[in-house]
Amino acid sequence: MKKETAMTVVGGSGEMFDRIAARYDLMNQIISLGLDRGWRKALVQGLAVEEGGKVLDVATGTGDVALAIASTHSQTEVIGLDPSEGMLEVGRKKVDKNSMTQRVRLDFGDAQAMPYETNTFDAACISFGIRNVPDRTLGLSEMARVTKPGGRVCILELSEPRGSIMSPFARFHVHHIVPLLGAVLSGDWEYRYLQKSIAAFPPPDKFCGVMEEAGLEKITIQRFLFGVAHLYVGHVPA
Fold first, then answer.
1. Of 157, 159, 112, which Cα lies nearest the Cα of 135?
2. Residue 20 included in any domain
3. How many CA atoms lie within 13 A of 118 on its CB side?
4. Cβ-proximal residues to 2 (8 Å cutoff; 6+ apart), any chain
5. How many domains, in total, are found in the chain?
6. What is the pLDDT of residues 64-102, one digit of tens each?
7. CATH of the domain at 223
8. Which domain holds residue 62?
9. Residue 236 burial (CB < 10 Å; 0-12/13-18/19+)?
10. 115, 131, 142, 197: which has the fewest C-beta neighbours closer than 10 Å?
11. What's the whole-model pTM score?
């Protein structure tokens, strides 16, 4: 199978995200109409991690998912990984503000070459970030590598809405409203990349094939809001 690749406009450097870090959380809430919080909650539940475990949050950004995991599981350690120092700086302030420094650590690094030993984590996740990994198969393979056998790898991602009577309206929002709001709110017209990266992302069945190529199995899909977002849950072979 040919490897799927993401839009190279972002790549692995995180430079664009450094510029929009201060307004990133507000943009997500407005652009998703506030639904991103519920989607992330489903992601945290999908991890099915036991208390006292260790979880990796890839493309952690400003740390919302890492903090949500730590808040939901009071004895769990969470490591966040991201290629944007600007985003991590915002996230570390959140961690400190929420008194989570003992259980949440945010690291700088590349999803395609993670600085962790094999079988380190009980589960791993990535939220709205797999689109921006230049080699998605490699990124997913790394997530599978660092996750213990039997552990879950959860991916929450936006996609082109298809197959619903409401799909044309959802696509209009993605193609026109999202780039405009992103540019206005961030002050950076490069945020229009979001629409392009969503359009280039493979449909659910093809993305499941990418997950399987990366070594994951028993994959399930949960669809949100006419297909605007999907939650993929795969298992590392036991």
1. 112
2. yes
3. 4
4. none
5. 1
6. 999 999 999 999 999 999 999 998 999 999 999 999 999
7. 3.40.50.150
8. 15-235
9. buried
10. 115
11. 0.83
